[in-house]
Amino acid sequence: MFPGIGVLANVLGIVGGGLLGLGCGRLISERFQKAIMMACAVAVIFLGLTGTVKEMLQIGADGGVTLVGTNCMLASLIGGAVIGETIDLEDRMERFGHWLQQKTGSGGDMRFVEGFVTASLTVCIGAMAVIGSINDRLLSDPSVLFAKTVIDAVIVMIMTSALGKGCIFSAISVGIFQGIIFLLAGFLEPIMTPAALKSLSAVGNILIFCVGTNLFGLPHVRIANLLPALVIAVVWVLV
Protein backbone atom coordinates (compact mmCIF):
# COMPACT_ATOMS: atom_id res chain seq x y z
CA MET A 1 0.00 0.00 0.00
CA PHE A 2 1.17 3.52 -0.76
CA PRO A 3 1.29 6.49 1.67
CA GLY A 4 -1.96 8.43 1.45
CA ILE A 5 -4.21 5.47 0.81
CA GLY A 6 -5.80 5.95 4.24
CA VAL A 7 -6.77 9.55 3.48
CA LEU A 8 -8.08 8.51 0.05
CA ALA A 9 -10.08 5.63 1.55
CA ASN A 10 -11.62 7.98 4.12
CA VAL A 11 -12.75 10.40 1.40
CA LEU A 12 -14.20 7.61 -0.77
CA GLY A 13 -15.86 5.95 2.25
CA ILE A 14 -17.69 9.17 3.10
CA VAL A 15 -18.85 9.59 -0.50
CA GLY A 16 -20.03 5.98 -0.62
CA GLY A 17 -21.85 6.21 2.71
CA GLY A 18 -23.41 9.50 1.68
CA LEU A 19 -24.67 8.17 -1.64
CA LEU A 20 -26.18 5.16 0.12
CA GLY A 21 -27.85 7.44 2.66
CA LEU A 22 -29.14 9.71 -0.11
CA GLY A 23 -30.80 6.75 -1.80
CA CYS A 24 -32.34 5.60 1.47
CA GLY A 25 -33.53 9.13 2.28
CA ARG A 26 -35.55 9.29 -0.92
CA LEU A 27 -37.37 6.09 -0.03
CA ILE A 28 -38.55 7.03 3.47
CA SER A 29 -41.14 9.49 4.66
CA GLU A 30 -40.47 12.79 6.42
CA ARG A 31 -41.65 11.29 9.70
CA PHE A 32 -39.02 8.57 9.51
CA GLN A 33 -36.38 11.10 8.47
CA LYS A 34 -37.08 13.08 11.65
CA ALA A 35 -36.85 9.91 13.72
CA ILE A 36 -33.50 9.09 12.09
CA MET A 37 -32.29 12.63 12.82
CA MET A 38 -33.12 12.23 16.51
CA ALA A 39 -31.39 8.85 16.59
CA CYS A 40 -28.35 10.38 14.93
CA ALA A 41 -28.34 13.22 17.47
CA VAL A 42 -28.45 10.78 20.38
CA ALA A 43 -25.61 8.72 18.87
CA VAL A 44 -23.38 11.77 18.31
CA ILE A 45 -24.04 13.09 21.81
CA PHE A 46 -23.24 9.68 23.27
CA LEU A 47 -19.99 9.43 21.28
CA GLY A 48 -18.90 12.88 22.34
CA LEU A 49 -19.85 12.41 25.98
CA THR A 50 -18.22 9.01 26.42
CA GLY A 51 -15.08 10.18 24.61
CA THR A 52 -14.73 13.17 26.92
CA VAL A 53 -15.42 11.14 30.06
CA LYS A 54 -12.83 8.54 29.02
CA GLU A 55 -10.13 11.22 28.72
CA MET A 56 -11.03 13.40 31.72
CA LEU A 57 -12.03 10.91 34.43
CA GLN A 58 -9.19 9.29 36.31
CA ILE A 59 -9.31 6.51 38.90
CA GLY A 60 -6.83 7.06 41.74
CA ALA A 61 -4.89 4.46 43.70
CA ASP A 62 -7.58 4.55 46.39
CA GLY A 63 -10.29 3.77 43.85
CA GLY A 64 -11.66 7.30 43.90
CA VAL A 65 -12.67 9.02 40.67
CA THR A 66 -11.33 12.49 39.92
CA LEU A 67 -11.81 14.91 37.04
CA VAL A 68 -8.56 15.96 35.35
CA GLY A 69 -7.74 18.53 32.69
CA THR A 70 -10.48 21.00 33.61
CA ASN A 71 -8.17 24.03 33.39
CA CYS A 72 -7.03 22.95 29.94
CA MET A 73 -10.62 22.39 28.86
CA LEU A 74 -11.80 25.81 30.04
CA ALA A 75 -8.80 27.65 28.60
CA SER A 76 -9.15 25.83 25.27
CA LEU A 77 -12.87 26.43 24.86
CA ILE A 78 -12.84 30.06 26.01
CA GLY A 79 -9.68 30.92 24.08
CA GLY A 80 -10.92 29.02 21.05
CA ALA A 81 -14.25 30.88 21.14
CA VAL A 82 -12.50 34.26 21.26
CA ILE A 83 -10.17 33.42 18.36
CA GLY A 84 -12.89 31.68 16.34
CA GLU A 85 -15.38 34.50 16.71
CA THR A 86 -12.70 37.03 15.80
CA ILE A 87 -11.96 35.38 12.47
CA ASP A 88 -15.51 33.94 12.19
CA LEU A 89 -14.70 30.45 10.98
CA GLU A 90 -18.37 29.46 11.02
CA ASP A 91 -19.29 32.16 8.51
CA ARG A 92 -16.39 31.22 6.25
CA MET A 93 -17.39 27.57 6.33
CA GLU A 94 -21.01 28.43 5.55
CA ARG A 95 -19.94 30.65 2.65
CA PHE A 96 -17.97 27.73 1.23
CA GLY A 97 -21.08 25.57 1.68
CA HIS A 98 -23.18 28.11 -0.23
CA TRP A 99 -20.55 28.14 -3.00
CA LEU A 100 -20.73 24.35 -3.23
CA GLN A 101 -24.51 24.56 -3.27
CA GLN A 102 -24.43 26.88 -6.27
CA LYS A 103 -21.74 24.95 -8.15
CA THR A 104 -23.60 21.65 -7.74
CA GLY A 105 -26.95 23.08 -8.80
CA SER A 106 -28.46 22.41 -5.38
CA GLY A 107 -30.11 25.80 -4.90
CA GLY A 108 -33.43 24.18 -4.08
CA ASP A 109 -31.96 22.07 -1.27
CA MET A 110 -32.63 24.25 1.77
CA ARG A 111 -30.62 21.99 4.12
CA PHE A 112 -27.55 21.65 1.90
CA VAL A 113 -25.33 24.04 3.87
CA GLU A 114 -26.54 22.70 7.22
CA GLY A 115 -25.77 19.16 6.11
CA PHE A 116 -22.34 20.09 4.77
CA VAL A 117 -21.26 21.98 7.89
CA THR A 118 -22.70 19.47 10.37
CA ALA A 119 -21.23 16.41 8.66
CA SER A 120 -17.86 18.13 8.09
CA LEU A 121 -17.49 19.00 11.75
CA THR A 122 -18.52 15.52 12.85
CA VAL A 123 -16.03 13.64 10.69
CA CYS A 124 -13.10 16.08 10.92
CA ILE A 125 -12.94 16.64 14.68
CA GLY A 126 -11.06 14.06 16.71
CA ALA A 127 -7.70 12.51 17.42
CA MET A 128 -8.20 9.69 14.90
CA ALA A 129 -7.97 12.17 12.02
CA VAL A 130 -4.68 13.54 13.32
CA ILE A 131 -2.84 10.40 14.40
CA GLY A 132 -4.24 8.42 11.45
CA SER A 133 -2.94 10.91 8.90
CA ILE A 134 0.48 11.04 10.57
CA ASN A 135 0.74 7.24 10.62
CA ASP A 136 -0.37 7.07 7.00
CA ARG A 137 2.48 9.36 5.94
CA LEU A 138 5.36 8.39 8.19
CA LEU A 139 4.70 4.70 8.84
CA SER A 140 2.71 3.79 5.71
CA ASP A 141 0.16 2.48 8.20
CA PRO A 142 -3.42 3.40 7.20
CA SER A 143 -5.10 1.13 9.77
CA VAL A 144 -6.35 4.01 11.95
CA LEU A 145 -7.85 5.80 8.95
CA PHE A 146 -9.36 2.56 7.67
CA ALA A 147 -11.18 2.19 11.00
CA LYS A 148 -12.22 5.85 10.84
CA THR A 149 -13.49 5.29 7.30
CA VAL A 150 -15.99 2.69 8.47
CA ILE A 151 -17.21 4.92 11.31
CA ASP A 152 -17.48 8.00 9.09
CA ALA A 153 -19.28 6.12 6.32
CA VAL A 154 -21.99 4.99 8.73
CA ILE A 155 -22.33 8.43 10.33
CA VAL A 156 -22.55 10.25 6.98
CA MET A 157 -24.98 7.66 5.62
CA ILE A 158 -27.36 8.33 8.52
CA MET A 159 -26.91 12.10 8.33
CA THR A 160 -27.44 12.18 4.57
CA SER A 161 -30.71 10.27 4.84
CA ALA A 162 -32.01 13.05 7.10
CA LEU A 163 -30.14 16.22 6.01
CA GLY A 164 -29.62 15.57 2.32
CA LYS A 165 -26.74 15.51 -0.12
CA GLY A 166 -24.85 18.40 1.47
CA CYS A 167 -23.44 15.83 3.90
CA ILE A 168 -21.69 13.99 1.07
CA PHE A 169 -19.49 17.01 0.41
CA SER A 170 -17.99 16.68 3.88
CA ALA A 171 -15.61 14.39 1.97
CA ILE A 172 -13.98 17.59 0.65
CA SER A 173 -13.48 18.87 4.20
CA VAL A 174 -11.93 15.58 5.29
CA GLY A 175 -9.69 15.49 2.24
CA ILE A 176 -8.40 19.01 2.88
CA PHE A 177 -8.03 18.64 6.66
CA GLN A 178 -6.39 15.23 6.70
CA GLY A 179 -4.42 16.04 3.57
CA ILE A 180 -2.79 19.02 5.30
CA ILE A 181 -1.95 16.90 8.34
CA PHE A 182 -0.56 14.22 6.01
CA LEU A 183 1.74 16.75 4.34
CA LEU A 184 2.85 18.25 7.68
CA ALA A 185 3.27 14.87 9.38
CA GLY A 186 7.02 15.23 9.86
CA PHE A 187 6.53 18.50 11.72
CA LEU A 188 3.53 17.33 13.76
CA GLU A 189 4.82 13.93 14.89
CA PRO A 190 7.08 15.18 17.75
CA ILE A 191 4.36 17.60 18.86
CA MET A 192 1.58 15.02 19.11
CA THR A 193 2.75 13.37 22.32
CA PRO A 194 0.40 11.01 24.21
CA ALA A 195 -0.51 13.90 26.54
CA ALA A 196 -1.22 16.20 23.58
CA LEU A 197 -3.40 13.56 21.90
CA LYS A 198 -5.28 12.98 25.15
CA SER A 199 -5.96 16.72 25.50
CA LEU A 200 -6.95 17.01 21.84
CA SER A 201 -9.32 14.05 22.17
CA ALA A 202 -11.00 15.45 25.30
CA VAL A 203 -11.71 18.87 23.76
CA GLY A 204 -12.56 17.37 20.37
CA ASN A 205 -15.16 15.10 21.92
CA ILE A 206 -16.76 18.08 23.66
CA LEU A 207 -17.18 19.69 20.25
CA ILE A 208 -18.67 16.45 18.89
CA PHE A 209 -21.12 16.52 21.82
CA CYS A 210 -22.11 20.03 20.71
CA VAL A 211 -22.73 18.74 17.18
CA GLY A 212 -25.29 16.37 18.70
CA THR A 213 -27.05 19.14 20.62
CA ASN A 214 -27.30 21.16 17.40
CA LEU A 215 -28.90 18.17 15.67
CA PHE A 216 -31.45 18.08 18.48
CA GLY A 217 -32.41 21.66 17.68
CA LEU A 218 -31.23 23.02 21.03
CA PRO A 219 -29.76 26.57 21.17
CA HIS A 220 -27.25 26.61 18.32
CA VAL A 221 -23.57 26.28 19.17
CA ARG A 222 -21.26 27.87 16.58
CA ILE A 223 -18.94 24.88 16.64
CA ALA A 224 -16.71 25.96 13.75
CA ASN A 225 -15.83 29.05 15.78
CA LEU A 226 -14.65 26.77 18.57
CA LEU A 227 -12.19 24.84 16.37
CA PRO A 228 -9.16 26.89 17.55
CA ALA A 229 -9.77 25.21 20.92
CA LEU A 230 -8.19 22.07 19.45
CA VAL A 231 -4.92 23.92 18.81
CA ILE A 232 -4.96 25.49 22.27
CA ALA A 233 -5.57 22.07 23.85
CA VAL A 234 -2.38 20.74 22.24
CA VAL A 235 -0.29 23.83 23.02
CA TRP A 236 -1.50 23.79 26.65
CA VAL A 237 0.22 20.49 27.45
CA LEU A 238 3.40 21.40 25.55
CA VAL A 239 4.24 24.64 27.38
Walk me through this protein's architecture.
75% of the residues lie in helices and 3% in strands. A two-stranded antiparallel sheet has the order 1-2. The model has no long low-confidence stretch (mean pLDDT 89). The protein is globular, with a radius of gyration of 18 Å. Strand 1 (57-59) and strand 2 (65-67) form a beta hairpin. It has eleven helices and two strands. It is mostly helical and 239 residues long. Helix 5 packs parallel to helix 8.
Helix content: over 70%
Q: Tell me the Rg in angstroms.
A: 18 Å
The tally of helices reads: 11
Largest sheet: 2 strands, antiparallel
> SSE string, helix = H, strand = E?
HHEEHHHHHHHHH
> What is the residue-averaged pLDDT?
89
List the helices and strands and how they pair.
Elements: H1 5-27, H2 30-56, E1 57-59, E2 65-67, H3 70-87, H4 89-103, H5 112-124, H6 127-138, H7 143-163, H8 170-183, H9 185-188, H10 194-215, H11 228-238
Antiparallel strand pairs: 1-2
Helix pairs in contact: 1-7, 1-8, 2-7, 2-10, 3-11, 4-5, 5-7, 5-8, 6-7, 6-8, 10-11
